[in-house]
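Q: Can I see a sequence and its folded structure?
A: Here is a first one.
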Amino acid sequence: MSHFANFIAGEPVGANHTTANVNPSDTNDVIGDFSSGTKADVAEAIAAAKQAFPAWSRTTPQERHDILKRAADEVLARKEELGRILSREEGKTLAEGVGEAGRAGQVLSFFAGETLRLNGEMMGSVRPGVGIEVTREPVGVVGLITPWNFPIAIPAWKLAPALAYGNTVVIKPADLVPHSAWALVDILQRAGLPKGVLNLVMGKGSVVGAAMLAHPDIAAISFTGSVATGRLVAAACVASTPMKKVQLEMGGKNPLVVLDDADLKVAVDCAVNGAFFSTGQRCTASSRLIVTDTVHDAFVAALVERMKGLIVDDALKAGTHIGPVVDQKQLEQDEHYIRIARDEGARLIWGGERLNRQTPGFYLQPALFTETTNAMRISREEVFGPIANVIRVKTYDEALHVANDTDFGLSAGICTTSLKYASHFRRNVEAGMVMVNLPTAGVDYHVPFGGRKGSSYGPREQGAYAREFYTTVKTAYIAAG
């Protein structure tokens, strides 16, 4: 069996304990043993990053550009291989895995360019003979904690800006899916990063993540994961001495509104893609389908017909539409919410059953509930599985009210042929990202990603907006003569 070590100060570092990385499409397939880091490993990684920071933060934009561009080119050249690695360990279909690997390469390429576009301001003072220069500088050693559902794209869109703007990094990927992040770090190391600039410590959040949060030499933490853990991360960053800069992405309960005038085929396509692709394991998934009364029955009937044709199978098998749930724990959580919804009076109109396939895996038939209200737990809490519920409303105004009646605010969508309603929804829905006649999931790599309320905290990720987190602003006054 292959063994994968941590990367600290540019060298592989083994561990006394390892974690087996298991294929959710075939639990007999163990991908490899991955080192489980300790508090001491974290301290060593942070020390290496701290030592590397002064020199790396003063490299030229061209040096950082060239390294990121070489890494981007290798990721894009190997996207088929990296996509297979991803799909094998996470369970999303091979097409989705290859697409995500390609996205990681595009992110690296974008931020290679951003190294050359970082600028400042010169302005005059209200005092004669005084000039003002406003510049951006790297924040220091940055800790990155990434989730299991996008195991190469999210590490890429955190790592790329962190490095582009001159920070050094300690990254902890989700312990369920370490191989994709390991491969990405390996590529960046070989692209020419100096020793200590990028350090990888794998293992449990309760050990590695906690040690990162407690260490005084980490200046900033970027975290993607659950709301509960995100709150703990924020509290720890504020309580630390010195205080840490913090960025959180924590999920969603995203509405897709379907109005009477919607193109039915477009609406069903948006619902299937948003609710069930990637096994529903996306923070931008369309888990609440809010449908006006006149079109409700036709929409549900058409959606069920589409669901009947979805093939749930091995993620690497040709023709698979939906792969397995990521692991046994997540499968049990999905089934738990199916029982809750039924107990609350929701009608399970299709799916929700465990499936047996040629290989042992965590296969779940996509589930659709009707006769639900926005007060039910199935409408309030993020399930993170291939489960959606339909909420019947009478009018657009009621649909907008229901869409906004949530503790989350990441993504929201509307299907309509009315410019009036599309424009009003875009302005008045309480979400960080809005989609009109498109799935709620799917955001380009060069635009800001993030939400409101309980979905996000701190500056946006991705695109040029990433500089708000990964740099700090300095204002300097210069007196003439």
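Q: Show me another, different protein.
A: A second, unrelated one:
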Amino acid sequence: MEKKFVWFDLGYTLFYQQREAVYQQFLAENGIYISLEKIERAYHLTDKYFMREYPSVLGKDVQTFYPWYLGVLNFKLGLHFHLSRQSERMLEMKKPIEQWRPFAFVNSVLTKLKRHSYGLGVISNWDHSARELLERHHLTAYFDHIIISSEVGVEKPDAAIFEIALKDAGVSGEECIYVGDNYYDDVVGSSKVGMKALLINRFNQEGIEEIRYPHTIRSIEEVPDLLNKMDLLL
């Protein structure tokens, strides 16, 4: 069936944080140097570990999981710190830095999809800051429908949040593509309503070795070209 609508996740799909630079700065304060590339990989692997083993945790308030997360991250880099002190210091270091910002290619990708007459939407597990974030970065106007878990009272991977989105947009799941970075929330969840999904994984199959999923991309930059090759998404 012809695809008419593209839905996006927010975190690490449209937006990212400068967390790796903060972590590298923390290490420097402790006399340790590790390259940003190595730190990025460790964050990636830690994210995927939490997505697989502890569903929904990363969508909660950072205070509920941050020392735990840092412990796993440190372990992947062969490091050990007093976690409560590390957590406090890194949260302090983050304050002057804007937490979430759009990837550099977001505007151009969304513009290209609009130019080809695709409907665009957001389905995200996020708190009430989501709309303000989109507005601050001048992205709201791109989207025909924005569905946020904190507003509708249900989270991915529950089929209900996707059903709300489909009803609002007046389309069927078979007419949609969903794009996100969490296999368990995004691919599994969207499949419950008949959507096909593109799974973002920056480091190819690294961190998702347990998954046998053919539609994996490195970023949303690949989406417009893939939509022109519809046989890949059938």
